[in-house]
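Form 7-S
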Amino acid sequence: MSTKHVRTTGDLVRFGLKLMIECSQCGSTNVLTGAETVQLGGMTNLASLQRRLRCNQCGERAAILRYL
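Output:
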């Protein structure tokens, strides 16, 4: 059994994963494909992208990232 190490937006594309972004303040969620994530944040690591994301509903920078 292997483990996928997902650290970058490129990893999402390579493994065919989706990224769920949830606001820890208001609870709103959004699901993006790997390609949409690359368009949104470029080819970057997910920790860097997480710090830059702002919630569309409440405006907070409190994103929780999960891949599906």
